[in-house]
Fold this protein.
Amino acid sequence: MNAPADADARRAIAPVICYPTEALPGPDMALLTAARQTLTKVGEVTVPPREARCFEVPAGHFFRITSIEAPQVGDLNLHNAADPTERFYSGKARALHGTHLSTGDRMWSSFPHLRPLATITHDTLDWYGIDDFGGSVHDVIGTRCDPYTHALLSDGAQYHHCCHSNLTRSLAAHLGLPRADAEPLVHDVLNVFMCTGFTRDTGQYFMKASPVRPGDYLEFFAEIDLLGNLSACPGGDCGSEHSSDFAPCAPLLVEVFRPAVDSLAGWSPPSVNTYDRSHGP
Ligand SMILES: [Zn+2]
C-alpha cells in the first residue's frame, strides 16, 4: 500500500509502556538477598541431556539451575505443587517484565490465579544485557521446541526429544498420569540460559549460541509450594539447531536450598488474584 501523507508523523508517535510495573506488588529483594546468604542445600536433581526431570520446592525455599559440563539451555515449567493446572504464564510475564527475565522479575501464574509462583533472586548472566543483534538471555518469547512444529517444518518428520515431549514424559511419570493427560499441563517455558531475540529487519525469532558457561546459574525463590519440570533442550547451547540429535547436549543441575528459619520474617506466600471472577453483570 502507498503510505499516507502523514506516515512519518504517525510513526513518530512515542511508545507508551503497556503495563507500567510501578504499581505491581514487588518482591522484598532486601529480605530475599539477606535470606539467600543463609542457604542450606536440601536436595538436587540432574537433568540428563535431551530429557526432562521434575523437582519439588517448598514455599520459602530457593532453587538454582546450573550449567554443568558444557553450555546448555534449559526449558523450565513451573506448577503449583497442589494444583498443576495453576502454572507459569509466560505471555503475562513477558507483558509485565519484558522479553527476557532476570533478577527481581517474577514467574506469574495462569488465570484465574495470576500471582507470583517464584521470584528470580540471582542471575550470573545479568552482565550480558542486550547485544548488538537485539539478543538477550532467559527469554519468555520462544514457547518451547515441540514435535508438532518440527513435523510442519520437516515434512512430517517424527522427533521425540523436543522439550515439549521431554516435559510431557517427565510430568506424566511424576504425577502418575497417562502422557495424553499430562501433555495439556505442559506450557510455554522460561528459556533458561537461551540467547534469543527478534531480527530487526524481518521481526523473526532468532537464537544464537548461549553465553552460559559451566558454573553459571539462575536462582529462584519459591513463593508457593512448587512443582518444577526442566528439560535439557536437544539444541544444546542452541547455537545451530534444535529438534534433532545433532547438537552437543549436556546435563543441567537443579539444586534446592532452605534458608535459615528466621531469615524470612514478615514474608508470606502470595494469595490468589483478587478479581471477583464475575465478569460483570
Ligand atoms: Zn528445547
About this structure: The chain has a mean pLDDT of 96. The first helix runs from residue 7 to 11. Residues 45-220+231-260 form one domain.
